[in-house]
Amino acid sequence: MRSPLDTLEAAFNRVTVFFAALVAISIGLIALLIPLNLFLVKTGLGSIWWLFEGVEYTLYFGLFLGAPWVLQQGAHVKVDVLVTALSPKSAAMLERCMDIFAVGLCLLLGFYGTRATIIEFIDGTMPDKDLRIANWIILSAFVLAFLMLAIEFLFRMRSERVLKIDKEVVTADAGF
Known about the structure:
It contains 6 helices and no strands. By secondary structure, the chain is mainly α. The chain has one domain.
């Protein structure tokens, strides 16, 4: 029987996979739209005027909203020199301490991001671009990402995770 925490973790895993899929689709669209825009410009048929700023926004959103999935898969940048030199028990303790530190750091960044988001919403600040997305929306992605990262770090501390990742497979196959 699954506990409520198992159900919550499974739902969270589905959300991170959803965001990872959106990021993958957006990268694919970028790869298609840039040559299409170049073709349109070179043939004099026009252009996709919003493309470069759209790519900028897409990369920003993708970086932040894809980060929890990357962490979940163990595909993030990580230096294991110290961990491999320690005994398994000490290494596990160090990992736990780093997860606790990371939760605190993510919550701190989320707190300050929330403050900035509220200020930008109140001010109604808009960027000086052709494709204009309100700054508070951009900052909301930042806040959501750090909240999700904090949740993932908390789930990493569970001994009975819903998501099972083989440590050997992760280093070889994770990422793109």
